[in-house]
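Blinded run. Sample ID left blank on purpose so nobody reads anything into the name before looking at the predicted structure. Input follows.
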Amino acid sequence: MLVAAAWAPMIRYFPGLWSYIQSVLSYLVPPVVAIFLLGVFWPRTNGNGAFVTLIGGHVLSLAVFVLSQMGYIELHFTIIAGILTALCLGLLVVASLALGDAPAPEKIDDLTWANRAFETGSSMAWYKNYQVHAAAVLGLTAVMLVVFW
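Blinded prediction complete.
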């Protein structure tokens, strides 16, 4: 709470609230995206690697943010987000390989992507069907485009 209160006056230096939100998210989100992507698609990802990436990625993001605000890094925040995500992906791979074994297959069987995720049938509940999820995301995206365009 104290950090938020101390940071609030800095918002006035951004061109607008939307620009501020997008810029801040481009620094905060890359470690989380890296953990989510590799956690879903690479079964070797472990908790130790995720923890190191979460802490290290946010420290790296903070350093890059400070350097960009001081004028040492002059890249658009969308480019910085991509670079930070790539660095966090690399950190997660190295940390997962160095800091522990892969999780047991039975622990991650329902959490990682596999071809069986595309199997549909009468035995699959509607809330587990990826086609329902995809249709819902597309529908909500269309609604947001219509409402906010």
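Unblinding after everyone has recorded impressions. Residues 114-149 form one domain.
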